[in-house]
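Bench log. Compound arrived from synthesis this morning; before running ITC I wanted a structural hypothesis for how zinc ion sits in the protein. Inputs:
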Amino acid sequence: MSPTPSNATSPSAAVTQKFTRAPKAELHVHIEGTLEPELIFALAQRNGVTLPYASVEALRDAYAFTDLQSFLDIYYAGASVLQTAEDFHDVTAAYVERARADGVVHAEIFFDPQTHTVRGISLDTMLAGMERALAQAEQRDGFSSRLILSFLRHLSEDDALETYQAALPLFDRYPHRLTGVGLDSSELGHPPSKFARVFALARERGLKLVAHAGEEGPPAYIHEALDILQVHRIDHGVRSTEDPALITRLARDQIALTVCPLSNTKLKVFGDMREHTLKQMLDAGVAVTVNSDDPAYFGGYVNANYAAVAQALNLNDDELYRIIRNGFEASFIDETQRATLIARLDAHWQVA
Ligand code: ADE
Ligand code: ZN
């Protein structure tokens, strides 16, 4: 019998044998980015929305992005089919089912309320639908989750403040689920400092804080997110390698980065996955995690993201373990749950 190829020569073997079934956390996924074209069409029909695409295939064909903005234009259009609590339930339930197939046992899910309130959809409607799906997944399958309310940075801080004030009763009603705020949408020209006041309020309230930074924007935006917004994690952060002092800081303070490899290549942050900075950051001791961002648009859920980056950067078994473990270490869960989930990972890893 020929010997099993080593992981160094065959990372894809490691991918299939070990981590596809490993329990994982997903810390960077936008619920609106999990709307598969088939579901967009089904919800459009249910809600009487006319889409500017003739078919599922025509919509999928439009997913050829040149940068973040070219994606966001289509992503916001797709999100317009979400109208009722049932719609928010259905997209959330579909995501959970798909994530579970990839071994995800804990997810921290972004939603963009301003994308929906502008169309007259209330925060109550969004939360009611998502909570029903997540509570059911928790009871039925032990799937644990949090929701992170994300402000759209291309809008004003006053708009974010208004959204935050409107969400206060929801933070009270869903304290177990709605536990943080984030910052997303068009990064360039909208630095984290623009949202200093709303993040200060969220911080005073004890909410968890995250921000997209260093996706298309410069390392200075990551410094701002840390210094001014005082975030607990950075979403993306892949441009941090341009600033050695920042890498040292991220490693020293163990600030986790929620990296999304397929998103980065689809949005042309990197021309090729082999140029991705994930391994450089990992080698420098930065707590990188792997996530799917907007899986319905970028061609893969969390395992596909691991597989793509493991293959391109030749990640070995230990590196994959560290990335998965980083996901649990960086999750917004209590220490008992963290220890339980890491023990589950270790038990799987030793026998797999
Ligand atoms: N909203 C959804 N996906 C995003 C991304 N990759 N960057 C910024 N905002 C987003
Ligand atoms: Zn994102």
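What the model suggests: The pocket of zinc ion (ligand 2) is lined by residues 28, 30, 184, 212, 235, 293 (CB under 6 Å). Residues 123-141 form the longest helix (19 residues).
ITC booked for Thursday regardless.
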